[in-house]
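Workshop exercise sheet. Pairs work together: one partner reads the sequence aloud, the other fills in the structure field after running the prediction. Swap roles for the next sheet.
Pair: D.N. / O.F.
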Amino acid sequence: MSHLRGHKDIPSVELTGMDIKHREVLQWLHEVYGEEQIPVYEKNERSINILHQLMKASKRSEDNAKVLAADYTKKAAEYNAEAMQKKNWLDALKFSPDDLSEESQKSVTALANTAQVLDVQSPTSTNIVLALNQLEMDHMKVVNELEQEKGRKACLLEMSQQLSRKLEEIKRISQQAEATWTLQQEELSRDAKRQQFSREKSNNYAADITHYEAKLRQVGLSKEITHSHLCAKWADLQALEKQVKELEQQLQNYTLPPDMALAEVKVQEARQELASIMDGLAITCKTSMS
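Structure field:
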C-alpha cells in the first residue's frame, strides 16, 4: 500500500463504479486501521482495484474464520457436556482412571490414540475395524494414485526427452540453415563483386574499342584489312582451293577427256584466279603489318 492516499471526503455527485469501489475500500481501511492513520496510497484505477480485491479476500477469510470459530465453540461445548456426563457416570460407580493398573492405563491410552488417529468417536471394536478397513481402502487408493502418478511422470519424462531431442535437432537444423544462409550471402556478395568487375571491364573495353576505332578512322582505316574482311577472304580462298582440288581430281579421273583444250583452259583460269587471290592477300597482309 505504498504511495497510497486516503481521503474521507466523497464528492456529492453521481457515483461511478470506481467511486463505489473507492468508498468500500475506504470504509474497509477505516475498519482495519481504526484510529490509526490510513497509509498513503495512489488514487487510480489500478490501485483501487487491487485494494478492492484485497478487501473481498479479507472479508471472505474473516467469514470463514467466524464459521470455523463458531464450529469449534459448538464442538467444545458438546465435548464438555459429554465429558461431564461420563464424569457423572464414573462418580456414580465410584471409579477413577487412577484405579486401573499400569498395563490397563497403557491399553486405554493406546486405544484412545488409535481412536484419535482413526478419527473414531466411539472406540468400539466394530468402529475400529471399520475405520481400519476404511484406512486400508484409502491406503490402496493412495497407492493406486501413486502408481498412476508414476506412470504419468514416466510418460511426461519420455515426452520431455523426446521434446529435448526434437529441440536439439531443431537447433542443429537452425544452425545449419544459418550457416548455409551465411555462405549464400557471401557467395551472392562475391557474385555481385564479380558482376560489378565484369561490368566495369566491359565498359572499359567498349570505351577502348570506341577510342581505337576513332583513331583508326583518323588514319584512314580500310575495310579490306580488317580482321573480319581478311577472314572472309581466307574462307573464299579455302573454298577456291577446294574447288581447284576437286577439278584436278576430276581431271585425273578422266582417262579420255572429252575436250582436253577446254579442260586445260579452265584449269589455267582457276590457277590464275588463285594466284590473283594469293597476291591480293599478300598485299593486304603487308599493308596491315606496316
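Discussion prompt: The longest helix spans residues 125-218. What would you look at next?
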